[in-house]
Request: fold
Amino acid sequence: MFKGSLVALITPMHPDGSFDEDAYARFIEWQIEQGTQGIVPVGTTGESPTLTHAEHRRAVEIAVRAARQRVPVIAGAGSNSTAEAVDLARHASEVGADGVMVVTPYYNKPSQEGLFRHYTAVADAANVPLIIYNIPSRSVIDMSVETMARLAQHKNIVGVKDATANLTRPLHTRRACGAGFVQLSGEDHTVLSFLAAGGDGCISVTANIAPKLCADMHAAWHAGNIDEAIAIQDQLVPLHDAMFCESSPGPVKFGASLLGFTAPHVRLPLAPISAAAEARVRTAMTDLGLIG
Reply:
């Protein structure tokens, strides 16, 4: 169920920084029309750390309603408090999400045993498939392959979003966790290499801005049209670069504003991107024909 081009959704906002629910629903509809195969609300790109709990829950509810079971919804449910992650996962399950994505607990720096117990507690409480989100660059800790293999024995833990950018990792994960354990890349630049190493898809930042190109690249790869997939990848590289030229999701929110889906607002402590970054995003989108 979780494969191909999935999008790590932005959370559209009004110029005053309040959640723009109508734009959010429109954006999800556009994503599905463009070929996106799954949506992931309230993750890192969705600014989950600065959303209120009420906004977080509302974003999941709107995503489920807007998707209308046409594509799976994997709701962000991560926290550095196990009790809070359990609560968010239960809510996502109750409102109809198809899965939850739970980031490795940041700041606390738990041991591997702490990680094992944290995910076990959330998976025990959730009634839906759980995707581990391993992103050491943001959460400081890195879940080991050995810990992931232990967790893969849990009936509700079905895969990983791997944002390590370590292309040996999917090889070891596949050997340790089995071919049925879903591996989704969390790093746009290395998607095809990740797929070649045994991955199943990508939860993408860039897909917010270029959903059709991202979806077409995955479709070409899975159809065996490798040259076509590589050609699309080559086209996307400057856009990937632009999306991460400053702290994400600043550049992608600006890009989405150029498409008319949101104000470029990001919540503090994130700051508006610089004029140079704006120019870089605008140029990359223009060169791809995404804007005039």
About this structure: The CA atoms of residues 120 and 154 lie 8 Å apart. The chain has one domain: 4-225. The beta strands are 4-8, 38-40, 74-76, 99-103, 130-134, 157-162, 182-185, 201-204.
